[in-house]
Amino acid sequence: MLQQLFFSGRKPGTQSFGQLFKLYNKSILKSDKLNQSYSEQGEWDKGFSDHYKLHLKALVDEFEKERVSAASSARKKLIRLTPLFVIIPVIGWQLIVWELNEPDDFHGMGLYFIGLSFAATTWFIRRSVVAYQNTIKNKIFPRILSFIGDFTFSAEVSDRVKQFKDIGLLPAYSTEASEDNIIGEYKGVKIELFETHLQKWKKRGKNSRLVTVFNGLIINLSMNKKFSGKTLVKQDKGSVGNWFSKKSAKLENVKLEDPRFERVFEVFSSDQIEARYLLTVSFMERLLELDEIYDNAEIQLCFENNNLLMLIPLRKPIFEPGPITEPEDFIDDSQNLLKEMYLIFQIIETLKLNMELNL
Amino acid sequence: MDAYTLIIAIGAALIVVLYIWYSRIVRNKNQVYEALSGIDVQLKNRSNLIPNILSIAKKFMEHERELISSVTKLRTQSTAEYDSGDAQAVKEHMELASALTSEMGKLMISVEAYPELKSDQTMQQAQLSYNEVETKIAAARRFYNSAVSQLNNSIEIFPGNIVARYANVSSMPFYEADEGSKAPVDASSILG
User: Fold this and answer.
1) Of A50, A9, A67, nearest in space to A340 by CA
2) Cβ A272–B38 below 8 Å, yes or no?
3) Nearest-CA neighbor of A307 among A233, A232, A226, A199?
4) Cα–Cα distance between A180 and A154 in angstroms, integer?
5) Would you give the end-to-end CA distance of chain A in angstroms?
6) pLDDT at position A300, please?
């Protein structure tokens, strides 16, 4: 059920190229479907319709005007720059042909030209859309989050991964793009999470290019248990991979009793007993359950300083506003955000991090 | 390569294999000692907690004198020195620890029959600490049993059995859960 909840019904916003071309359609500037009421969908948004009426509905008109203005600005730019979608490939193709005549000196300049020109054009067109979406994130998301408790939300985050760099879970990276920092508390468990995209320069022949090394969610949760050592739960990478992990982390390998858990995860710790104190038999069972919920997304964990840090790779960003091509009513934004937060709370419930005893 | 060289090469390979096996056995044996000392640290913590629990319990549990004296006796016995290199002594030490766990379990269940004691703040705190220590003992026991399993495998599989004899290493006993916790629970007796 949770898996369905997590992987279905999420609107990708205007991230995709296809969404950009929807801006050609003039009907996106029409403001219909307004004055809607929120209809609750399930356990995760129970009671939200009243919250919607009180804290969000009054802002719909104002934000719909902003949406139309941003969409109109993006649409105008798209129409004006449409010739570029023909000119860029033509110039790029000429460069490729010209370079192909000199095969010894081929650097793929034409391809770079096409890629960079399209990226720059798209960025220019989407500027107003991104600005509008950030306004939604900064002004509306906190209002939605106030339904579930005292949570703060900041869309812009910088240099956030640095503090987790040395824990031994994150791969080496050259660039970091983090966003959507949420801080709050659920059943006494302090939560801090953000999305991050880490890339590393990799050499291929004469050229270097940025390759994604991690794209997903970093969640830091406080635990109601005191521990002094460090325990890592990594994905099992076979005997050779695990040997390298052990050497690089300078920790001892911990062999646990559950063969199913051992097939999926590999545990390293500075304290054999503490690792077993944290990873009880039932905790291992719950972690396997969680791994299934996230569609075997290769979850990794680090227990250190009375906190549990979780790394969950994701296929696409999760805390995103709905598409700008549809009238604004905050309903899809609320549903997406509440579903995602419900899933995070389920991690706490599933792993029973709020419990003091190791049940 | 003549026969003589071949015999030397095979002999050298055999020595290397036996040495690797020997070092593995010694490593496993040391890990068992490490795990055993981990258990003892937690048993010591429990032992330090028990007098507090008993002193609170004594005030209220007039009818449980026998149980309290049994806990006191087992506590004294389980904190006595023992030879960690002697498998039989380790086994007896583990059995005493398990018996104490069982008796303490009975005592904790008995607390339920004394509402005044059950609601006593100091007792509640002591019970929480006790549960925490028991959890740590369980974790230490899992580490110990894992280490024992590795050691026993390495000395029972050929040529480990021969190497172990020369290295003077013998198999160690597992630390098994107390009989009380293995027994089926009669829910009706708890739920009334």
Assistant:
1) A9
2) yes
3) A226
4) 6
5) 24
6) 92
Chain A residues contacting B, CB < 8 Å?
255-257, 272-277, 280, 356-358
Beta bridge partners of A234: A266
Subunit contact B139:A273, Cβ cutoff 8 A:
yes
The domain locations on chain B are 3-191
The overall average pLDDT reported for chain B is: 85
Residues 6+ apart with CB under 8 A from A114: A88, A89, A92
Cβ contact A277–B38 (<8 Å): no
For residues A255 and A236, what is the distance between their CA atoms, to the nearest angstrom?
Answer: 12
Tell whether the model's pLDDT for residue A29 goes beyond 60.
yes
Q: Which residue has the tokens 């890339």?
A: A199
Closest residue, chain B, to A273 (C-alpha)? B140
Residue A251 dihedral angles phi and psi, to the nearest 5°: -125, 165
Name the residue ranges covered by the structural domains of chain A. Answer: 2-32+41-226+306-351
Distance CA A181, CA A160 (A): 9
Identify any residues that bridge with A312 across adjacent strands, giving them in sequence order. Answer: A217
ipTM (interface pTM)? 0.73
Q: Domain B3-191 - what CATH class? A: mainly alpha
Closest alpha carbon to A220 in A307, A350, A348, A313: A307
Q: Would you state the pLDDT for residue A351?
A: 72
